[in-house]
## 1
Amino acid sequence: MWKIKDSSVQLSASSKKFLTELSKLLSFNITVTDGYRTARQQAIQMAETIQEQIFAGQGETLADVYSDSQLANAIQAEWPDTEKMALVIEQNADNGRYISRHLVNDAFDIRTTGGTENQLNNSQIDIVIEKANSIGLKTVLERDHIHVEVLENWVIVEEKKSSLLWLVAIGIGVALWTTS
């Protein structure tokens, strides 16, 4: 079973569908701590990452955390002003360039630590990642959560297999019918 931590978590229909499928593969409950984010919410998250990870002695930059290192560096250059960080995020999003899939409602985070319930141990974290990847989700283990992405036009892998088998069966039927 899965649940959201509170009413502030907004999820797309596709995220909910994948969470339902993922939870069927798990023998334990999971809590979703984040979903859709505005540019301002993303800027605040990134500012917290800078404070918690980068300047806490880990020596990383946002470019080490995000796949679009050029955009991450541009956002970090505006730190600690989260309004300016949000403006960089918004301007790039307006041009179709997103620092995070949270901005397009195609990402969610699953709690691993913190909170009062559904914390995951290392074995459960490995299982969530394995099962999520097995149904076509992209996962990244972060400091206190598993970041999960639902990419555009993805369908649940099991559904793809069923559709493919159905199409192959139709194809074979048509081939047999036309050769008879």
## 2
Amino acid sequence: MNKKIKSNNSFQFLLIIFAGLLAILLIAVYFNKSSNNSYNQSQITNNSNGTKMYKSKTLKFTIDLPSKFQVEEKFTTVFMKNINGLISIERIGTNYTDLEGYLRDLESKNRILIANKEELKVNDLHGIRGTITHPISHNIDEKAYFIYVDKWMVFTISTSSPALFGDLDKIAQSFRYTPN
């Protein structure tokens, strides 16, 4: 009789452990799916000119986006994809108090060159447009905008697809930092 009770208790203990692990797995799957959904962190509204206004609540910016793009937001990067390729917007922390110092460090540490640098204003923010070349790795060149939004923060908007350079220019020029 005592052996049967001990066996029954072991079975109940294993059943409770299994149920707990199953609950943890289901919660992890639920949160993983919700974190991959850009609509949980962002908003897309249609504009009258055939573009969409994309607002990233997590990364705190808005852009005007051509309607042909699909958007995916992950951690500190937003990916905008269509049949011609990919444009990305990445938020990067920096220890530099100016964009030029940040870019010098970026070139040195990543062994890249930023050619054809052109200073510009993007909605009153200091920016630099240029071409990222990869002399050592020989990766495809990228057209990029670097926008210094605040102390310690830079946004990079870039693509390696020449077919998207026009869209990149429009998206970068519409960039607005929205910290509040």
## 3
Amino acid sequence: MNIINLILYDILFEAKQVGLLYYGAWEESVDKIIMTDTIRSTYRDTHEDEVSYKLGIGNKEYTSLSRNLNWVRKTYGIIFVIDGNKLSQKYRIVPFNYAPYDYGNSNADEMEERVVGQIKPLSKYLIKIIVDWDMFAKARIKPNFNLLHNIFKNKKIEHLAKTAMGMDYKRSFLENNDEFNRK
């Protein structure tokens, strides 16, 4: 194989490397996400900067994902882990930096990735769902265990719990739902 063939091979067969992406939600919206197998576009780009328009996302609806799991864990109790490499084969994924707009707020470390449009079918890109029971405890939200059981049926789940109340929630859920006693 000569150098030109190697370059062509790389161009044709090398997929964009995005890595894992995270989408956070609470149980009320998770039910709708699982039932429709869709993460709906919930935002519209309002930053009238020339970068958004050069990237082709100016004034378009998008879904906000993050590359920073710790940032998502600070805000949400349920986190969808998505295969960004596979997602990038069908969707336009654009990195976004809040720094010019944030004025010292906490969004600067979010590592946001914007997916133009809604993500459907989500199941094609979903790696697993993380349930952070500590976030439910911190937000003083008593989980609806029956709803969560129906939502998570046949899904790969990772349970996180370090605080006493988070561990109580996890224990309560797993005691009544034997098929989720996986991790």
